[in-house]
C-alpha cells in the first residue's frame, strides 16, 4: 500500500493486519520483531490526554503544551479542564485532566518517545502505578489506526472505564461527524455504538459538577467552577461618552467609590472599560485608553474588598490588554473577539489569562450599519461566526478552557435580534456544539444592561430608567443558560440571579 513504507528492523516493529479491517477500513497495527511499518502520510490526527496532580498543575499543562508544540505536534483543539478525584490510588491530591487534538508527522512510536521525554524532562519518575505525577501524557487516538505493540496500545484498553478520560475526549469532537478519521474513532468505542453513547453509559453530563469531577476555568490563582452559581460582572466605564454613565467615573476617587459599591452589592467581577463601544463611537488611542485605565486599576488593587474578586479589562487593543494584566487584571474582554487587533489572540495566549470573545460585525462605528444587521437566522448565524473567532483563538494558543463566549447583545443586532438571542441561547450553544463540544461548554456571558432595545420595548428613552427591564432580560438569559451577566446595577441583578439559581437548582432535582 502506498500509505506505508518499510523501515529497517528494530526491536519493536509493526505489521499491518489487513485481515482485521472492517467495513470502515480501520487497520490494526501489531508488533513484529522482524520489521517495522510506519505511517507514510504527511501527517496524522491524534488525541493526547493530559493529567497532573503534583506541583502547579495548570503550569504543568502549559509547559507540556509548549513542549509538545516544539516537538512537532500542532495542537488544533483543546478539551475543557476538569478537576477530578484520583482513581485507583485514592490517597493522593486531586488531578487536573484534559486532552488536546492535533496533527503530527511523527510516527506512533516516535510520538510516544516524544511524550515520554516531555514527562521525564518535567520531573516525572518511575513510581507507584496510578500514583502522583507532575504530568501524564497518553496517546488516546492515532489517525485511523488501532495499535498494539510491546510498548504501545492505542486506543488504551482502559479508556472506556474512565470518565476523567472520556469527558475531555468527547469535548474534542463535534456533535456532527466532521471527518472519516472521527468516524473511525467512534467505531473504536467498546460496548457502545459510538463515543457519545459510551459517555452516556458512564453517566454523561450528570457526572460533571459532582464531588468527583468539576469542569473548571483557571483564572487568577484559582480554578473557577462557574456552574455553581451565576456570576455578576459589574460595569465600570472610565469614559466621558458611554451611553449610560459616561463621565460619572472619570476621577480615580469616583471610580474606586463605584467599585466599592458594586462589590458590596454582590459583584463577582469588575469590568474596566476605558474606551466607549456604544454605536458610532470613535476610537481613541492605546495611550489615551491606558491613561484612563491604569491609575484606576492600581487604586482598586489596593482595596481590601477586592480580595477574592476578579478584574476584567474591556478592550480591543492587545497592548492595553497586556498592560492591564501586568497591573493585576485577570481576564480580557474583547468586543471584537480579536478581529480589531491581529495581535490580540497571540498576546492573550502568552498572558495565559481567560479571553471573553464577543460577537460583533464591523466595529463600534459601523456595527449598526444595514449590511451588518442582515441575518438568515440570528442565533445560528451568530453561533457560526462566533465559532470561527473562537477557533482562531484556539489555533493561536488560547485553550478552550480559557475561553468565555458572548453573543454580543446590542452589537450588530436590532431589537428583534436581541430578543431572539435572549430566548435562543440554547440554540447558540447547540450550533457551536455541532463543530466543537468543548467550545459550546464554555461559560456564556450576556450583556443586555440598559441597552437601547430595552428602551424600545419598554418606551424608556433614558438609559438609567431601564434597570427593571434589564432585570427581566437577565432573568430570561440565565434561565436559558447564561453563566455570567454584565450589568450596571449590581444590586437589582444580584437579587434576580439569586432567584434564578434557586429555580434552576429546583428544576435540576425535580
TrEMBL record:
Domain Pterin-binding: 230-498
Cofactor annotation: Mg(2+)
UniProt-listed Pfam families: HPPK, Pterin_bind
One term under GO cellular component: cytoplasm
Entry superkingdom: Eukaryota
Gene Ontology annotations of biological process type: folic acid biosynthetic process; tetrahydrofolate biosynthetic process
UniProt cross-references to InterPro entries, sorted A to Z: DHP_synth-like, DHP_synth_dom, Dihydropteroate_synth-like_sf, Hppk, Hppk_sf, Pterin-binding_dom
Gene Ontology MF: a single term: kinase activity
Key words of the record: ATP-binding, Folate biosynthesis, Kinase, Magnesium, Metal-binding, Multifunctional enzyme, Nucleotide-binding, Transferase
Keyword Nucleotide-binding: yes
Catalytic reaction equation(s): 6-hydroxymethyl-7,8-dihydropterin + ATP = (7,8-dihydropterin-6-yl)methyl diphosphate + AMP + H(+); (7,8-dihydropterin-6-yl)methyl diphosphate + 4-aminobenzoate = 7,8-dihydropteroate + diphosphate
Pathway: Cofactor biosynthesis; tetrahydrofolate biosynthesis; 7,8-dihydrofolate from 2-amino-4-hydroxy-6-hydroxymethyl-7,8-dihydropteridine diphosphate and 4-aminobenzoate: step 1/2; Cofactor biosynthesis; tetrahydrofolate biosynthesis; 2-amino-4-hydroxy-6-hydroxymethyl-7,8-dihydropteridine diphosphate from 7,8-dihydroneopterin triphosphate: step 4/4
Family of the protein in this entry: In the C-terminal section; belongs to the DHPS family.
Name of the protein this chain belongs to: Folic acid synthesis protein fol1
The species this protein was found in: Nicotiana sylvestris
Lineage: Eukaryota, Viridiplantae, Streptophyta, Embryophyta, Tracheophyta
Designated gene of the protein: LOC104234368
Amino acid at each position: 500500500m502506498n500509505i506505508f513504507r518499510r523501515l529497517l528492523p528494530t526491536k519493536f516493529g509493526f505489521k499491518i493486519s489487513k485481515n482485521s479491517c472492517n467495513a470502515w477500513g480501520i487497520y490494526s497495527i501489531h508488533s513484529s520483531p522482524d520489521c517495522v511499518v510506519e505511517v507514510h502520510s504527511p501527517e496524522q490526527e491524534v488525541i493526547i490526554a493530559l493529567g497532573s496532580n503534583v506541583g502547579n498543575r495548570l503550569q504543568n499543562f502549559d509547559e507540556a503544551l509548549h513542549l509538545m508544540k516544539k516537538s512537532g505536534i500542532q495542537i488544533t483543539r483543546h478539551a475543557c479542564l476538569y478537576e477530578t478525584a484520583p482513581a485507583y490510588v485514592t490517597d493522593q491530591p486531586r488531578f487536573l485532566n484534559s486532552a488536546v487534538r492535533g496533527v503530527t508527522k511523527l510516527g506512533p512510536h516516535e510520538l510516544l518517545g516524544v511524550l515520554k521525554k516531555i514527562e521525564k524532562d518535567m520531573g516525572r519518575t518511575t513510581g507507584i502505578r496510578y500514583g502522583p505525577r507532575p504530568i501524564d501524557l497518553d496517546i488516546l487516538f492515532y489517525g485511523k489506526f488501532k495499535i498494539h505493540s510491546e510498548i504501545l496500545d492505542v486506543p488504551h484498553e482502559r479508556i472506556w472505564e474512565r470518565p476523567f478520560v472520556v469527558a475531555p475526549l468527547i469535548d474534542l469532537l463535534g456533535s456532527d461527524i466532521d471527518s472519516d478519521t472521527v468516524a473511525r474513532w467512534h467505531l473504536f468505542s467498546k460496548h457502545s455504538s459510538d463515543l457519545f453513547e459510551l459517555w452516556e453509559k458512564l453517566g454523561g453530563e450528570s457526572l460533571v459538577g459532582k464531588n468527583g469531577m468539576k469542569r473548571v476555568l483557571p483564572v487568577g490563582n484559582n480554578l473557577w467552577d462557574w456552574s455553581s452559581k451565576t456570576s455578576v460582572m459589574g460595569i465600570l466605564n472610565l469614559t466621558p461618552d458611554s451611553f449610560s454613565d459616561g463621565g460619572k467615573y472619570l476621577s480615580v476617587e469616583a471610580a474606586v467609590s463605584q467599585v466599592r459599591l458594586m462589590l458590596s452589592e454582590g459583584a463577582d467581577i469588575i469590568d474596566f472599560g476605558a474606551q466607549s463601544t456604544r454605536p458610532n463611537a470613535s476610537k481613541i488611542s492605546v495611550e489615551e485608553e491606558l491613561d484612563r485605565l491604569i491609575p484606576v486599576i492600581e487604586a482598586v488593587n489596593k482595596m481590601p474588598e477586592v480580595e477574592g474578586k476578579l478584574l476584567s479589562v474591556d478592550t480591543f487593543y492587545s497592548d492595553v490588554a497586556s498592560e492591564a494584566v501586568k497591573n493585576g487584571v485577570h481576564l480580557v474582554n474583547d468586543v471584537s473577539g480579536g478581529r480589531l487587533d491581529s495581535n490580540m489572540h497571540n498576546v492573550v495566549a502568552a498572558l495565559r489569562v481567560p479571553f471573553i470573545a464577543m460577537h460583533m460585525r464591523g466595529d463600534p462605528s459601523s456595527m449598526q450599519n444595514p449590511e451588518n444587521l442582515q441575518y438568515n437566522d440570528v442565533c445560528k448565524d451568530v453561533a457560526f461566526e462566533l465559532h470561527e473567532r473562537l477557533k482562531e483563538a484556539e489555533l493561536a494558543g488560547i485553550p478552550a478552557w480559557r475561553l468565555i463566549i458572548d453573543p454580543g447583545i446590542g452589537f450588530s443586532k436590532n431589537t428583534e435580534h436581541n430578543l431572539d438571542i435572549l430566548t435562543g441561547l440554547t440554540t447558540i450553544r447547540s450550533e457551536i456544539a455541532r463543530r466543537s463540544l468543548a467550545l459550546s461548554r464554555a461559560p456564556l456571558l450576556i450583556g443586555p444592561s440598559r441597552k437601547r432595545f430595552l428602551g424600545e420595548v419598554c418606551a424608556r428613552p433614558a438609559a438609567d430608567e431601564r434597570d427593571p427591564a434589564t432585570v427581566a432580560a437577565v432573568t430570561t438569559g440565565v434561565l436559558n443558560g447564561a453563566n455570567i451577566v454584565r450589568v450596571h446595577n449590581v444590586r437589582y441583578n444580584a437579587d434576580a440571579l439569586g432567584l434564578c439559581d434557586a429555580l434552576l437548582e429546583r428544576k435540576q432535582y425535580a
